Amino acid sequence: MPSKPYLNFADVQKIAAAAHAEAVANNWAVTIAICDDGGHLLSLQRLDGAAPLSSHIAPSKAKTAALGRRESKVYEDIINNGRTAFLTVPFVEGMLEGGVPVIVDGHVIGAVGVSGVKSDQDAQIAKAGIAALAQ
Questions:
Q1: Angle (CA) 100 77 50, round 5°
Q2: In this structure, what DSSP letter does residue 62 have?
Q3: Is 113 helix (H, G, I), strand (E, B) or coil?
Q4: To which H or E segment does residue 68 belong?
Q5: CA neighbours closer than 13 Å in the CB half-sphere of residue 101
C-alpha cells in the first residue's frame, strides 16, 4: 500500500509561526488558515486588526487550494477570463488568490489560506509559511 507524508502538529506550528512572522514584518493585519489535504481546518490565526470576514475567507482559500491541488489564484483567473460557470463547482468557495497548497515529495498534504491584504500579499504570507517546512 502506498504511503505519503502528512502535516503533523509540529509542521502546522512551524508554518503558522513563519506566516505570522511574514505578516507582522510587513505590518499586515490578516487571518492565516492551515488545513490538511481534505480541506479540514488545522489552525486559524486572526491577527489584531484583521477584519472579521477574513476569518471566513482564509479557510475557504486554504480548502480550495487543498482540494483543487493548486493555488486558488488558478480559479480566480479562470473566472476572470470569462468562464463564470466555474462558480458552480461544488465545495469550492475561496476562488481568490491567497490559497497555496503544501506539496511534499509530489504530494499535496494541505494548504495555507490568507486573507486581509492585497491578494498577492496574502499569497506571499502563505508561501512564507510553507517555505518554513524546508528549513
A1: 50
A2: H
A3: strand
A4: helix 54-68
A5: 21
Q: Interior CA angle at 94 toward 93 and 96, to 5°?
A: 135
DSSP one-letter code for 117: S
Spatial separation of the C-alpha atoms in residues 8 and 46, rounded to whole Å: 21
Give counts: helices (H), strands (E), the chain.
4, 4
What pLDDT digit, counting tens, does each position of 9-55 carry? 999 999 999 999 999 999 999 999 999 999 999 999 999 999 999 99
Cell of 85: 460557470
Sign of torsion, CA 71 47 38 134? positive
Instruction: Name the residue type at position 46.
Output: R
Q: Read off the C-alpha cell for 3.
A: 504511503
Strand pairing category for 31-36 and 41-46? antiparallel
